[in-house]
Amino acid sequence: MADGYGEYEGVGGWLAFFLVTLGVITPALLIFTTVRDFSDPLLALAYGETLGTLKIAIWGITIGTCLIGWFAVYRMLRVFNWTSVIITIASLWTIALLNTFVGAWLIATIAGLPLGEFLKELNFELVRPFIYAGIWTAYLLISRRVDNTYRRYPAEEEPSAA
Hints:
Layout: H1 13-38, H2 41-47, H3 51-78, H4 82-111, H5 115-122, H6 124-142, H7 144-149
């Protein structure tokens, strides 16, 4: 419930850190790792003719992830209502699913690998995005700053004097 404490209102503190991770750090890391992975000359030997299709699919996921994250950050910086928080939470979980299961399924399908075997190789990489999404979802739902900045009921500003 919004408590009206000015120091816990607006985009700052952990909320600002979260928006920087979602809008800058995550896209930068994704783009860097995608470029690095595709610059490996052994990749052409491993994937052969399917490498072009694989590149398109992975770049599609990377760009899609960036766009989803940037949209969520835009909403959090421009639209100060609870819908922005809901959109951001949905974005976090969509990004996690895109970068784990959808990405793994695409790679396995394009490369003709058994999905189960491919998933075994990923280990912690399958869990990390969900840990990130879980931690920040919890923060967005219980933070006093988020509650004061993104009103659940915009028409309910201050209680009227009786």
